[in-house]
Amino acid sequence: MAIKRKRYNADSPSATYDQADYEALRMSQIPATLARQGSLHFDSAEDASVFFARELDYIKTETYDVLYPEFTAASLFPHTSEVDPGAQSVTFYYYDKSGFAKIIQNYATDLPRTDVKGKPTTAGIYGIGDSFGYSVDEMRASRYARKSLDIRKGESARYAIERELNRIAWAGDESTGLVGVLSESNNVPVLTLPTNAAKTSTKWVDKTPAEILNDVALMQSYIATLTKSVERPDVLAIPTEAYLHIANTPRSDQSDKTILSWVLDNSPRLKSIVEAPELNADSGISPYAKGENPQGVGFMFTKDPKKFTIEHPLPFYQHPVQPTGLEFVVPCEAKTAGALIYYPLSMLIIPGI
Predict the structure, then answer these.
(1) What is the pTM of this model?
(2) How far apart are CA 12 and CA 57, in angstroms?
């Protein structure tokens, strides 16, 4: 879907601006210096402050509107921002039922006791930050050429933070203990697929359609057996190579359906199969893509915030502009607790796919 950019006229009297940016600019000496340069056509330092405050507000609006579809965690996984940004950690509980019932006699007093036990799990909250800025010369050039400031700096700052949030959502972070959906410490079961008929590979590109269909059935039956059909994962994310293979390979020589369409039509529990570049063997993100034998990996899960969420107490945020010497710097930050996995058995990791 095409991204629609908002029309903006910096010289329009109706254009709005961020008051915090305006105050920071007004208190600095840079707008006054620029206003004294007759070639820039500012009537006063206040007009210069208003102009650049509108410019920076425009940068922020444009940056918030930009989406990066290559970061699949944002669209694949449930996200929440329920935790206050001031919190240092977040705790949730695993609850389990205990006890039993039995047949009783009239006036019985030995009724069995049932209870609910909770096991707490705590995740730390960590900040991610970067910044971008504009020099006085860039502001001069912008006004002189009657062009807006380059929004690509703001886009680059957001891109860097979104990339790090995406990496943590998938793989976690060992240095901070943040958990991702593929982290080794998240208690998610791992399924090793059988090799192909030649006993040489578990990769789908090396398997026949029948072998791939058997793999999909094995994934579903594995979770069904493990949880007595309590958990029913409905999304399967796979590497690009595997996705293109099943999307372009016929179910059989006599079929007009691909493997992908056949699986979706005949798997009542599986609602979608999606491509995720983060799962590629050369992604550099997945824990399974590292070491001497990097592997592509599949990830089957239930897309439901009751099963797991990616918690961002503070989504991407741009602070007001800060004058620093002959430059205006815009600090940016976000906060994340990584993946909060309430039901690990609602997921399945499949290396070697």
Answers:
(1) 0.81
(2) 14
